[in-house]
Amino acid sequence: MCIRDSAERVPVGVVIPMAAAEVAPGDLVLTNLDRGPARRAWVVPGGDASAPSARLLDDDLESGPVADLAPLASGAFRLIGGDHDLGAWVASSLDDALVPGMIVARAGDALLLRGFGGALRTDSVANVRATSRALPAPGEAVLAPYLGRYLPAQVTGADASTGQVTVALRFQGDRVRSTHGVGTLLTP
């Protein structure tokens, strides 16, 4: 979160430092634009390695992709290159469900995760399952986050220019189409 003109108090675990990094098209990064939660972005052609062009992937865990094009200022983003990097999505078990969470802090093996509705919870690296940062192919079977839990789904479309993946899944007996950013899906 970037706090500019007001004195807000936030838990230190949800303040994610950005750092200078060099990235290439197809990389996932964590950034923040103006005020608001950290957002993941898909680096697209344009800009340069230290100040790239990117498509924003999500506002929040429950609101899904936004795909706005944004130039990222040098030092205002961090690469999500590893399974347990800050900004990476993981899945963990909670009340007999597999639930999504974004890593917002890490101390050794302990992770602080921001989940559905912004709820914070902790887990360990050993207890979470990493999502895939690769763009899946249409027809591929995946697990997709939907209303705070992972459900079986099938990829119906994947767009390398935006980092968006469209899936079909069943929710309470109804067939639903859902769009997600790269880095949120699991392989079954």
Characterization of this structure:
The protein is mainly beta. The protein is 0% helix and 47% strand. The protein has strands at 28-31, 39-48, 51-56, 69-71, 77-79, 89-94, 97-107, 110-114, 120-124, 129-130, 141-146, 149-159, 164-171, 174-181. It has a five-stranded antiparallel sheet, with no helix packed on it. The protein has a five-stranded antiparallel sheet with strand order 9-8-7-6-10, with no helix packed on it. The termini are far apart.
Entry keywords:
five-stranded antiparallel beta sheet
The major beta sheet can be summarized as: 5 strands, antiparallel
The chain-level structural class is mainly beta
- The CA-CA distance between the termini, in Å, is 33 Å
| Structural Rg | 16 Å
Total helices: the number is 0
Characterize the overall form.
globular
Give me the side-by-side strand order of the main sheet.
4-3-2-1-5
The tally of beta strands, per DSSP, is 14
The string of secondary-structure elements, in order, is: EEEEEEEEEEEEEE
Low-confidence stretches: none
Mean pLDDT: 84
Helicity, in percent? under 10%
Residues in β-strands, percent = over 45%
Q: What's this entry about, in short?
A:
The chain has 188 residues and is mainly β. The protein has strands at residues 28-31, 39-48, 51-56, 69-71, 77-79, 89-94, 97-107, 110-114, 120-124, 129-130, 141-146, 149-159, 164-171, 174-181.
